[in-house]
Design brief:
Layout lengths: L1 H28 L5 H10 L5 H14 L7 H4 L7 H12 L4 H8 L4 H12 L1 H16 L3 H6 L8 H7 L8 H36 L1
């Protein structure tokens, strides 16, 4: 169960951070027609309740044969996260545009500017996105419950729920399992708290 959750965490965190930063980069550093309109529509998607998309997404994934696999749980993360895109866009806007201009004078393209200049300076906000995504994926119960039908593919959240029986639940075992499940979250937060707090503060101050 732990290996299944770790796999999903790695895939979703990597996908969410990379895709969101790629989408945020042109909104923050480039000029093109309709940029503000597109960004407004992007932010508007945050107002759409998740339950509204639940049935359409399930039908889509079922029809393409992804039911019973991990694909519905990590592939959508590679399409970007509107909240992360907003955070990264605000942070990237605080980076001096002169760095981009100097890089272009030296012959650097947009990809080089994004990967070698902007991304290293965005470590705090990338850490914020990574920690949020990690916690969301690690604690996700509803997604695996809907899309996974093989007990061998269950995550720690589902495994924890299976400990609670209708009759004769051993609550001492449940509490011990709860402690084990939350330990990774506490460890990640302990090591990332400086960048996490600093990243959120910088987004608020520099946006």
């Amino acid at each position: 169960y732990t290996a299944n959750s770790v796999f999903l965490v790695v895939m979703t965190v990597t996908g969410a951070v990379l895709s969101s930063s790629l989408i945020a980069f042109p909104f923050a550093r480039l000029r093109f027609r309709g940029k503000n309109v597109l960004f407004t529509f992007l932010i508007a998607t945050m107002l759409l309740p998740a339950p509204v998309l639940l049935i359409p997404q399930f039908l889509l994934f079922y029809r393409i044969g992804w039911y019973g696999t991990y694909y519905p749980l990590w592939v959508p993360a590679w399409a970007g996260n509107a909240f992360f895109i907003f955070l990264m866009r605000q942070y990237m806007r605080s980076i001096p545009i002169e760095l981009d201009e100097a890089a272009r004078v030296d012959g650097a393209g947009y990809w080089t500017i994004y990967w070698r200049i902007v991304m290293p300076l965005c470590v705090p906000v990338l850490t914020v996105a990574a920690v949020f995504q990690f916690i969301g994926t690690w604690n996700d119960f509803f997604g695996p419950l809907i899309y996974l039908d093989d007990p061998e593919k269950f995550t720690v959240a589902l495994a924890l729920a299976r400990l609670v029986q209708k009759v004769g639940t051993e609550w001492n075992e449940v509490m011990a399992a709860n402690l084990i499940v939350i330990l990774p979250v506490l460890i990640v937060y302990f090591f990332a708290q400086d960048k996490l707090i600093g990243g959120i503060a910088n987004v608020g101050l520099k946006g």
